[in-house]
UniProtKB/TrEMBL annotation:
Keywords: Cell membrane, Membrane, Transmembrane, Transmembrane helix. It comes from Acrocarpospora pleiomorpha. This is Sugar ABC transporter permease. InterPro entries: ABC_transp_permease. GO terms for molecular function: transmembrane transporter activity. It is a multi-pass membrane protein. Signal peptide: none annotated. GO terms for cellular component: plasma membrane.
Length: 353
């Protein structure tokens, strides 16, 4: 055996040789940033980590997180649903109307039914009329909000104050073992979504379709069924979220949660779901929901004006899109070694002539 410097082959003497920066970010990135943000909040907003305030954050994040479950499926399938803000406004208005007319059972039925119908409308536009998801949901966003405005042209729908002790009102105010009920509902929805995505055929088909629609169709996966499932799921999650939202704010009209869709999309993309489709992570979405919610609550507690809050939300969305691009760029094994360059030592190995 001879040692030739020109023909020497190098191998890394470090486990970093197979580490993917993209996978590392998906696993720990958002969680690490969330921890850093929590550690910094006492200096930024004293008293933020008090029990009452943390319960408020959990309660506030619930409706964003619930819809983010459905949006994770949508984006993983290679589509967007930009209408979730309009869906939430319309569903909230209809739900309060149903409660004032028929009580708790009617309100719950109205919320779930209205959400599903909104999802069916989007699915019909996309699968029946072949309208691109972006265009279809952007248009339905204005339609849903417009209907909500028409239903409340005489004034917003409200939950009567004398119903504060009703089972319906307690959906947003009740605590169980110190944890807000809306948060527990969100956890249940995430658990169900994870099982659906990772342990069922329709979940695997959704990911396969998002990865390559043409290959999925070649394998017998129906794009109509995938689209119908995804957008109806988004509508259902909006219906569930509306129940936790209106029992917290007690009022609804066409302007409810303006810009809501941006919060949801930012959380999903920051959490690790690929914009190009084919990949979705509900664990990452869960952490990102709290990151966005805590950031918003810190701004509110500091008295930041709503205009600046929107600027921050826009910046978060831009960061989310940037992170998605970087995640794709550094997805291959060994990308951490390549990024660090000469900081990781190399070990020369001998090769036979």
């Amino acid at each position: 055996m001879t040692r030739t410097s020109a023909a020497s082959r190098f191998s890394l003497s470090s486990p970093f040789s197979t580490v993917s920066l993209g996978r590392l970010w998906d696993t720990w990135g958002i969680t690490a940033i969330l921890i850093v943000l929590l550690l910094c909040t006492p200096a930024i907003a004293p008293g933020f980590l008090e029990v009452d305030n943390l319960q408020s954050v959990l309660r506030e994040s619930a409706y964003v997180g619930i819809v983010a479950v459905g949006m994770t499926f949508a984006i993983a399938s290679g589509a967007f649903d930009l209408s979730v803000g309009g869906q939430l406004a319309l569903t909230s208005v209809v739900t309060l109307m149903a409660f004032n007319g028929g009580g708790t059972a009617a309100a719950i039925a109205a919320a779930l039914t209205t959400g599903l119908l909104c999802g069916l409308v989007n699915a019909g536009l996309i699968t029946g009329l072949r309208v691109p998801p972006f265009v279809a949901t952007l248009g339905s966003l204005f339609v849903f909000r417009g209907i909500a405005y028409l239903l409340t042209q005489d004034g917003p729908q409200t939950l009567p104050y004398d119903q504060i002790g009703s089972p319906f009102a307690k959906l947003g105010s009740l605590n169980i073992a110190g944890l807000p009920l809306p948060f527990l509902i969100m956890v249940a929805v995430f658990a169900g979504g994870w099982i659906l995505l990772r342990r069922t055929a329709i979940g695997r088909r959704t990911l396969a379709y998002g990865s390559s629609p043409s290959a999925a169709r070649f394998c017998g996966i129906s794009d109509t069924r995938v689209r119908l499932f995804v957008f109806c799921l988004v509508g259902l999650t909006v219906g569930i979220a509306a129940l936790t939202y209106i029992t917290r704010v007690w009022t609804a009209d066409g302007s409810a949660q303006d810009g809501f869709e941006l919060k949801v999309i930012a959380a999903v993309v920051l959490g690790g779901t690929a914009l190009k489709g084919g990949k979705g992570t509900l664990v990452g979405t869960f952490s990102a929901v709290f990151l966005v919610s805590i950031l918003n609550e810190v701004l509110v507690s500091r008295g930041v004006e709503s205009a600046y809050q929107r600027i921050v939300l826009g910046c978060v969305l831009i960061v989310a899109l940037t992170v998605d691009g970087l995640r794709t760029r550094f997805a291959a094994p060994g990308s951490l070694r390549r990024a660090l360059g000469g900081l990781i030592p190399r070990k020369a190995t001998q090769s036979a002539p």
